[in-house]
Design goal:
The complex is a heterodimer. Chain A is mostly beta strands. Helix content of chain A is about 0%, strand content about 50%. Chain A contains no helices and eleven strands. The N and C termini of chain A lie far apart (about 35 Å). The mean pLDDT of chain A is about 95. Chain B is an all-beta fold. Chain B is built from no helices and eleven strands. In chain B, strands 2, 5, 6, 9, 10 and 11 form a six-stranded mixed beta sheet that branches. Chain B is globular. The chains are: A mainly beta, B mainly beta. At the A-B interface, strand 4, strand 5, strand 9 and strand 10 of A face strand 5 and strand 6 of B.
Chain lengths: ~110, ~110
């Protein structure tokens, strides 16, 4: 099992550009999450999904959109990137069969917006 | 609302010394509590879950509901313990979303 994978690993964008981050998991998990990690702030939830075709807002959703067309994939989109979105983005998943529903994390995407 | 507080941003200890990372939470119900560890530029990994009452890599954490704390302890720190540690809370009724503390960076000196 590859677990949770993220594409790309690194990206540099100019202000106003758009991009999509891909998260994939091969554990048949129902729940998937996107977090951003910033120094001194821990990880904050952007959006999440409780199943294929569903999405919901997290703590910091502004400027991001998501889609979950397939159970194994969760896409995070930035329509018009801003320097404030410079961060490390982590995807995570969990589901039935996971003790206490702890989350499994991907390796992260380091995004810089200039 | 659920909130997790890690009061120490940085913790520096010598190899072989005890280390304790503090974590306090605010939630009136019965949450699930976790400690995650992130080694340099790697993904977050689950270290401990409170319900298991286990010891992983020499670390233990006890849930104290009266003090709403879930402190992480290790009696003898090793250099390979240098990492970022996050305390996190989730609830079944909240779609298992994790609320993280700000994290504590631990440096173990030789």
């Amino acid at each position: 099992n590859a677990g949770v994978t993220q594409t790309p690993k690194f990206r540099v964008l100019k202000t106003g550009q758009s991009m999509t981050l891909l998260c994939a998991q091969d554990m048949n998990h129902e729940y998937m999450y996107w977090y951003r990690q910033d120094p001194g702030m821990g990880l904050r939830l952007i959006h999440y999904s409780v199943g294929e075709g569903t999405t919901a807002k997290g703590e910091v959703p502004d400027g991001y959109n998501v889609s979950r067309l397939k159970k194994q994939n969760f896409l995070l989109g930035l329509e018009s990137a801003a320097p404030s979105q410079t961060s490390v983005y982590f995807c995570a998943s969990t589901g039935q069969g996971v003790p206490t529903y702890e989350q499994y994390f991907g390796p992260g995407t380091r995004l810089t917006v200039t | 609302a659920q909130r997790v507080t890690q009061p120490e941003k940085l913790l520096s200890v010598f190899k072989g010394a005890p280390v304790e990372l503090k974590c306090n939470y605010s939630y009136s119900g019965s949450p699930e509590l976790f400690w995650y560890v992130q080694y340099s530029r790697q993904r977050l990994q689950l270290l401990l879950r409170h319900i298991s009452r286990e010891s992983i890599k020499g670390f233990t954490a006890d849930l104290n509901k009266g003090e709403t704390s879930f402190h992480l302890k290790k009696p003898f720190a090793q250099e390979e313990d240098s990492a970022m540690y996050y305390c996190a809370l989730s609830r079944r009724s909240n779609d298992y979303k994790l609320s993280f503390g700000a994290g504590t960076t631990v440096t173990v000196r030789a």
